[in-house]
Amino acid sequence: MSLNSYGGTFIGFKAMTAATKKPVTPTVHLPQKDSTAERSPASIPGKVIIDVISADNIMVPELRAPNKLELLVTAFFNDDDLEKEFAHLRRSTKPVEAKYIFNSYTCNFGNQQIVLPCLNRKHVVLYVSLITTTLDANKNRAISLKGHGYTSPIPLDKCQTFMNQKQQLNRVEGGEKLQMRLAYSIRVTTEDEGPDIPEDNTGGITAFYDVNEPS
User: Fold this and answer.
1) Does residue 135 sit within a domain?
2) What is the pTM of this model?
3) Is 31 within the bounds of a domain?
4) In the chain, N or C terminus with fewer CB closer than 10 Å?
5) Alpha-carbon span 92 to 161, nearest angstrom
6) What total number of domains does the chain contain?
7) CB distance 21 to 155 below 8 Å
8) Phi-psi region of 174 (alpha: psi -120 to 50; beta: other; left: phi over 0)
9) Which domain holds residue 176?
10) Which pLDDT does position 82 carry in this prediction?
């Protein structure tokens, strides 16, 4: 990801793309798939509602003020072009500053919600990025955006709810498990239920700080 496109450096998409194409055993009990062609429109999943709760055990070095670490959670579907879809602001939470406690970072997202259309999508993956902001001696700011970890694929084959999940994440670089855990809830429902789907706006890193601000 180029500096000009997103206002910061980025790595991590290629590793996740390769990993999520491989069969992955989810950490939650999942029902078997059925065909949407055999179901009534009232039962066909058309919307996914994701509540991002918190993250903990983020084992990265502590940054001293005024430098800071923020987290961003992005939802990707099975057939997405990840670099392209990352620019769609409704795919992500707003960045949230993490707090360093004892020997690791924790982050409270305050149940930020991602609401997306999901008709004919097979699964969704939650992808966690680390945003590092540093100031040099001349107070010039540098922003680095780096992929860190992602969940196992979460199925969208039928209307269902996964409440209060806490999943250990897969590492973007290397594929092994991280100590980091992400807490979230997901509701897969029909197109006409639940909150409205936000407008599909695009932008770079700085736009994430402005989207959906209360008036």
Assistant:
1) yes
2) 0.80
3) no
4) C
5) 20
6) 1
7) no
8) left
9) 3-22+37-191
10) 85
